[in-house]
Amino acid sequence: MWDYRTPGIPDELFERTEEVPITKEDVRALAISKLRLKEGYSAIDVGCGSGSITVELCLQTKGQIYAIDFDNNAVELTKKNLAKFGTAAQVILGKAQDVLPTLPQVDAVVVGGTWGDARQVIQLAVDRLKKGGRIVIDTILIETMYQALAAVGELGLKDIDITQVTIAKARKVTTGTMMLARNPVMMISATK
Ligand SMILES: C[S@@+](CC[C@H](N)C(=O)[O-])C[C@H]1O[C@@H](n2cnc3c(N)ncnc32)[C@H](O)[C@@H]1O
What start and end residues bound the annotated signal peptide (predicted)? Predict the structure, then answer.
């Protein structure tokens, strides 16, 4: 039986609610691969939403994982999904700007939510990274991408990669199979 160690757990296996967003499986698989995780690594998931990335971080590393979200619905959903997959993380309700400075240094950070001030959130996230640690920033808005790009440039990160992912999924229609496009995600990854 598949034990979920391969990134990209199907979205439908997660508990979902209308109001909490999820990073879709194909984008999630890419984000996880760009973190270059190893067993025992610690990580922070900034803006954990449904917890799908938090769960994958736990399964990939078996290390200490922290998840932050300022939406209580997201925190509760993340806890449900962690339990569903038999995983454990420290899930913290609060603004990333307030919580990040209280956390220890980690090997990897995923930034999936930056409402308020993307530049500040990314700076605080990079502060939490050990030297050689990896960061992945997922953005949908061009404005957030612009701020993220400025931040990674100013912070002296290395191996900066910018990838735009545009996924289309097949759907059966009466006349055949049609590809339906999802919104593009711009992903920045880098090493401290
Ligand atoms: C696109 S969702 C992330 C989805 C998540 N990666 C998943 O796999 O389900 C972004 C999340 O970031 C949270 N968020 C946005 N800005 C935040 C901030 N400044 N501090 C804490 N959480 C934040 C939102 O509440 C939302 O749940």
Answer: none
